[in-house]
Each structure stands twice: as C-alpha cells, then as structure tokens.
Design goal:
Layout: H1 2-8, E1 23-25, E2 45-50, E3 85-88, H2 121-139, H3 147-156, H4 181-184
Parallel strand pairs: 1-2, 2-3
Helix pairs in contact: 2-3
Length: 237
C-alpha cells in the first residue's frame, strides 16, 4: 500500500501525479509465490532475473533465454501476475567494474563493458527505466513520462524467454518477458507513446486510430496507476 501510494501520489499535495517509478526485484526463487513485498505492489515495476550471455561458465551458463533459479516467482496471492518484466541478473559487472576487486566475484572482473553482454543486472533494471525516461525527454520536448508509461514501454518491448519450459508470456516466472532497450529505442518500429495527461471519468472514452501494415504486427500495452488498496482487502485491485 505504501509503495502504491508513493508511485501514484508522488506529490502528496497533488494526488494522482504518478511521476515516480519504483523498480524492485526479489531473489527468493525458484518456487511459486516467492515474490514478496514491496515487489507485489500494483504500481511498481517488479523485475525477475534472467541468466546472462555467459555460456562459458558452468553455473548459470544456460544463456540469456533462461531464468536464474534464484529469481522470485509469482503470482501474487490475489492472482496478479508478477514479476512484470525480466532483466539479466547473473555474472554482472557494473560500469565501475574497473574500480572493483575480485574478492567477491565469481571470476576476475573485466574492465571492459561489452554492450548486451555485461549488462548490470540489478542496475540494468533501474537503468533501463532511466534510459527510457531520458529518451522520452529528448524526443518529447523535455517532458517526463508518467510512471505508468514507463512501465508500459518496458513491457511492450519485452521478449519471451525461448529456453523456458513455461506457457507463453505473460506468466508468473518471467512476467511479460525480458525487456529489450534496442527494440524500445528503434525508431523504425514507429512506437506511439501516449501519456494520458487528461484523465477520464465514468463513461468517458479515449479513442485513437491507426493503420496497420499487413506484415508488421501491432503490440498494444495499456497500464495505469491504481489507487492504493486497503491491506485487508482481497483481492487488492
């Protein structure tokens, strides 16, 4: 409830401002319903951990199409799907890896950060949202996207992990899949990022029309920040 309120009402004097994104994760897997508070909050972006592109290692060497076994799994107690998305979470070297020691590392840390290979796991989940916000500001006159739009963009870019023996996304293991910044920032895909600044009330309608190419599938993601629910209510929608 506290985190849902922080995301939706970042400014306590102006309710519904929803300009604060919260990216959270859990490392209590692999059993079902091991994702806990506050990642189970409705308005946060809960992220699972996929394995990295390090098939040269014996442990967590399955590759990026597989989940890490320690990644917390959903669903929430009231049936909501969590995590929302997945990001690399094993064999991570951050941007400061050259300054670190090998004392607590799985292997000697390389000073070279190769894009797409040594992505910061825990940091990648935060940085992914931050990179999108920066991109949105640069392409929308400096405007800051609301937290719901950040969540929608990451989910819309997500890719199903092909190595997982689960039902198609979304599912309680990987959510909507591993988010992909190159896809999200690809201008050729013609993303229409609609940040609903004019709120709707009962019986009001928002309509938007577009032309769909026969050979180009359309993927639509709708998210919203929900009012915090009373903790004793079940379900908490």
């Amino acid at each position: 409830m506290e985190f849902d309120e922080l995301v939706r009402d970042a400014d306590a004097l102006t309710l519904g401002t929803s300009n604060t994104s919260r990216v959270l994760r859990g490392n209590a897997g692999p059993a079902a319903q091991t994702i806990g508070s506050p990642a189970v909050a409705k308005n946060v972006i809960a992220t699972g951990a996929s394995q990295n592109d390090r098939i040269d290692f014996l442990i967590y060497g399955d590759g990026p199409e597989y989940m890490a076994d320690f990644s917390s799994r959903g669903p929430c107690e009231d049936g909501r799907i969590k995590p929302d998305i997945t990001a690399p979470g094993t064999y991570i070297a951050s941007l400061q890896s050259a300054s670190a020691t090998d004392q607590y590392a799985w292997a000697p840390i390389s000073s070279i950060t190769v894009p797409g290979r040594h992505q910061p796991g825990r940091a990648a989940r935060f940085r992914g949202a931050a990179v999108f916000v920066q991109y949105y500001r640069a392409t929308h006159g400096g405007a800051t996207p609301r937290s719901a739009l950040v969540k929608a963009a990451l989910i819309n870019s997500a890719i199903d992990l092909l190595g997982e023996d689960t039902v198609s996304t979304p599912n309680p293991d990987e959510g909507w899949g591993r988010f992909d910044l190159p896809t999200l920032l690809d201008t050729a895909l013609q993303f229409d990022l609609t940040d609903q600044t004019v709120l709707l009330t009962n019986s009001q309608v928002f309509e938007q029309r577009f032309v769909m190419a026969a050979d180009n599938p359309v993927k639509i993601t709708l998210t919203y920040t929900d009012v915090p629910g009373f903790p004793g209510r079940f379900p908490r929608w």
